[in-house]
Amino acid sequence: MANLFENVHEKNTVPFRYDIVGSFLRPQVLKDAREQFENGKITQEALTKIEDEEITKLVAKQKEVGLKAVTDGEFRRSYWHLDFFWGFDGVEHVLMDHGYFFHGEETRADSARLSGKIRFNNHPFLAHYKFLKEIAGEDVVAKQTIPAPAQFYAELVRTVNEESVNEIYPDREELYRDIATAYRESILAFYELGCRNVQLDDCTWGMLCDTSFWKNMAGAGYDVNELQSLYLRLNNDSIVDLPEDLIVTTHVCRGNYHSTWATSGGYDPVAKTLFGQENVSAYFLEYDTDRAGDFAPLKEISEGKTVVLGLVSSKTGELEDKEQIIARIKEAAQYVPADHLCLSPQCGFASTEEGNILTEEQQWKKLAFVKEVAEEVWGNA
User: pTM value?
Assistant: First the structure.
């Protein structure tokens, strides 16, 4: 198949020309089972059996739609981030007075708070990945999504959570080292199970893109430039000296809860730091609305890195206009070589178990649309 760009090579490594962020809508049978488990009506063993069955179906469906990288849909999680944090030693599950405030909606009030020193020790996500790897087979990449180290830190110092941080880690340098160490050890443990693609999901940069967030944080005595440096350090220290065949990417999110959003603003404020200095191979970037600004900040993408353009919304079931998506890809190619561009939805379909407001049928049509557009733009590359 021909393509719209010259000098585009076949892409056989992640991220692929058409790709996904990771989460999928939870089937009703899974939602029912989780509710029954929470109410003590079924055992953990029974819940795991249903999770296994639904993940097996999901992986088969991802293959059927043509995806080359697959996930478990985050079907065993309640949240995209908190479940992973709770899996570390020294971290406890707590309820706060309020959840996160999105555009017109508030999330549940769960959070992660320190109860001791942070340590990696047989994290439950390892068993989750082992199952995914086994059912995925060798013809696709079994991708592991985890929240970024910077996101972990942001949760630990969120309002009253910071009191426990100050008590357990009076020396913040020790905290930073323990976060990076726990993350690096967990990533290497995934690698030992055969994982070759880890994605760091990260809302911290999206918050720094929001001018109202800048104002609020500065008013509370924070320096946004210091925060950028700290987030960069935490993320980079966690992925230093990893095996060469392990590809680490990141997804920069602006909030994705029940089809609502949390932050707005172009990437300009963080571009030099995030795009120029974070040591990942690729960026999955939200670009589905004008809230993300224009493509000009992509000029800061350091050489050799890939940008996955999140031009297709996972928040709505309505399909985008194909010609408009193609036009935007061409526009982005003014800043990043077309050979280093890919296409995906802007986020997952269910960052939390509530899921976005669209049907499973619409979800799969979205992914078929992403594949169709990508093949029209890049051909078989």
Answer: 0.95
